[in-house]
Amino acid sequence: MKRHDPNPASHAPSSGNAGMLAARVDLLSQMLTLIRLEGELVFAAELTQPWALRFEPGSAYFFVVLEGELTVLAADGPPVRAVAGDLVMLLRGAGHILSDGGNSPAAAVSRLMGEQFTTERLSMRHGGDGARTKLIAGAFHFENESMPWVVSSLPAVIHIPKAGGQTATWAEGLAHFMMVEAQEVHPGSSIMISRLIDVLVIRILRTWVQMEKAGDSGWLGALADPRISRALKAIHDEPFRRWSVIELAHVAGMSRSSFAERFSALVKEAPLSYQSRWRLTLALDLLRQADSRVSDVARQVGYDSDAAFSRAFKAQFGIAPVHARRATPPERQSSLIQSDG
User: Fold this and answer.
1) Could you give phi then psi for residue 147, rounded to 5 degrees?
2) Of 81, 83, 87, nearest to 61 (Cα)?
3) In the 8-state DSSP scheme, what is residue 340?
4) How far apart are alpha carbons 35 and 171 in whole angstroms?
5) Whose CA is closest to 168, among 215, 207, 212?
6) Lowest CB count within 10 Å: 51, 183, 188, 260, which one?
7) E strand or H helix at 307
8) pLDDT tens track for 104-117
């Protein structure tokens, strides 16, 4: 595993639209270096009106709409309408319903998978005899404990419309390869699916932060504020420095009280709490290196004692630092089917 660089490449100036966009992309790049995704499966679906599908809580999903249109209703967000060429992603694994926009009873996807999937073919059909929607769907999960706090500030549904020219040929190319893997399972399909999902998720996130509506969501959206973005940049450029609120307020060019209030309102967390969470996220990555020692990592991320580091680490991740390398991820949905030929 690659060691974290405490001095990442410098950001573009944080004033002005171009600077704020560059800062958002740069911060996301730092976050993405810590993402470990494991793809579960990719499958094709042909749906004809009337239809509705229920996805239980557990896995994260993405959908590439190849033909027709659909509505996504997440457990914690408003309905989102998507049409052919659009991409939709739900990172939180909170459960959702996919439908034609009507009021049809939702069929459990797990049941349809069990009835229609085979070791040679991962595809399903469902619905009546009306208008057709075709899509490629993928399920995945995050491999480590560091990501829930990162994705919790992102929208329940990330929608990348084709109409804005955002998906272009890269989405079509990935959809083509995924269709091949979903329609005919070959030797090595599992690893191929996992790698394709990894690429697609990162590409969707990168595209999303470049869209205007990325400006109102937690740590990422806070970079749309020129002053708060300077403070976030400082924290990420020097994550192990003993920052004070006064110092960060000075970087932002604000009074201490105004800065603390504005930062907490946008990031949904106090400045030093955010820095502590980010330091511990980096510590988790460091601990999973083969040659890591708890005491060394504790000092590197700015803790004076192993005990203080262990208490903070366990409070955030629910495990002691010594167990971080052999921690196992939570159980996935048992209904998901993944197979090699």
Assistant:
1) -85, -30
2) 87
3) -
4) 21
5) 207
6) 188
7) helix 306-317
8) 999 999 999 999 99
- d(CA 237, CA 131) in angstroms, rounded, equals 52
Please list, in sequence order, all residues whose beta carbon lies within 8 angstroms of the beta carbon of residue 218, skipping any fewer than 6 positions away. Answer: 152, 153, 154, 266, 267, 268
CA distance linking residue 23 with residue 8, whole number of Å: 12
Among 195-199, 223-227, 260-264, 310-314, whose mean pLDDT is lowest?
A: 223-227
Residue written as token pair 């197979």: 339
> DSSP secondary structure string, 50-104?
S-EEEE-SSSEEEEEEEESEEEEEETTS--EEEETT-EEEE-S---EEEESSS-P
Q: How many CB atoms lie within 10 A of CB 85?
A: 19
Determine contact, residues 73/97, Cβ cutoff 8 Å.
Answer: yes
Cis peptide leading into residue 321 (ω within 30°): no
Cβ–Cβ under 8 Å, residues 100 and 50: yes
Distance CA 279, CA 281 (A): 5
Q: Give dist(CA 80, CA 312) in Å, integer.
A: 38
Q: Where in 122-171 does DSSP place strands (E)?
A: 123-127, 132-142, 158-160
**Smallest Cα–Cα separation from 63: which of 15, 153, 133?**
133
Confidence of residue 252 (pLDDT cuts 50, 70, 90): very high
Is the pLDDT assigned to residue 75 strictly greater than 60?
yes
What's 162's DSSP letter?
G
pTM of model > 0.70: yes
318 closest CA partner among 142, 148, 154: 148
